[in-house]
Specification:
Length: about 375
Amino acid sequence: MWKKPLYKLLSFQNPHLKISTMGGASSKALTFSSVITKTTPTSPFPTKFTRTHFLKLPQRSQNDILFRASANPFNPSFHSISSIAWNKAPENIIDGGEKSEAFGAKDKVITVVLLGWLGAKPKHLKRYVEWNNARGIHAITFTVEAKELLWFDLGARVEQRIAELENELARWVLEKEEDGRERCFIFHTFSNTGWFVYGALLDGFQRREGLTEKIRGVIIDSGSADPLNPKIWAAGFAAAILKKRNSSTNGLENATTDSKLQEEEPGMIEAVLLSALEKFFKFILNKPDVNRRLRTIVNAVMEHPPPCPQLYLYSTADKIIPYKSIELRIEEMRKKGIKVFSFNFGTSSHVDHYRAFPNIYSSELHNFLKECFAAIKQR
């Protein structure tokens, strides 16, 4: 049925990577082109968008037309990207509502960048979008579906999408609002997938003038674990596969043989899948090009983090990301002089803290945002 073997698989926790293990392929198994996107005219937000055409061009300067004042995703003239969803906060809150002043950021226009876990869909991030919109904060979502990682051109597509996101964020934040207010970002990442996407974006930001200082805070939900541990990679990828499998079989009236097996012996299926994935990632992560690129991303996050506060939300009960690994990351950041906040939810599962403890989660976010903008006033 297939003309080519399905051997090309992208590492799940870093959709910025393009990995090829097909026989006869180039020795460069990992490629990262400097991609700049050129968009075709699209309908105004929030209607559907048309396709984007990709060109390998030099980095554009901030004087380029893409970075001029008209680059506002909430204006009809803005040409957005099909894979990125902007969610505008209500006008009555933005224009001086009490909630917009609660964080001490009356002179700022904030957009939170929500980077989802592997397999997440925009609907899964809806509660986070709504929480921010209700407080006068715009939201932009970026997700990587598990099925994208099992297609022939997956490496190129996901890499292009991350390049699109970087360029779209840059074109928005490098301009001020018409009333003179400054634009800025809060990054909110989920699992190691979102954390790696953030690292890839930060690496790009650090190569471009005027972007890193626009980051006012970083929230890490269930992420930042050891990036070169094949067991963690395997656990995350297995969770995405099994969750997708569950969602596709639970709605069937007549259970199939596969679904019966999964109900009767889920532990066996998970054990076999984990074993296979762990062997795969143990091989992939030791490839020189893959290892080099991962270390570049981790270096951007760990060695050159933006000087803004960070909030780590995690749980002892997380079966995918070891909590001790997160606590080690917290200590490393503190030693570098970063103001770090954290909360261990104890019993909630991976990226499930908000659903399990909505009031506590909301309180942690609120207090953290106040700290982010209080830190700006103190500089």
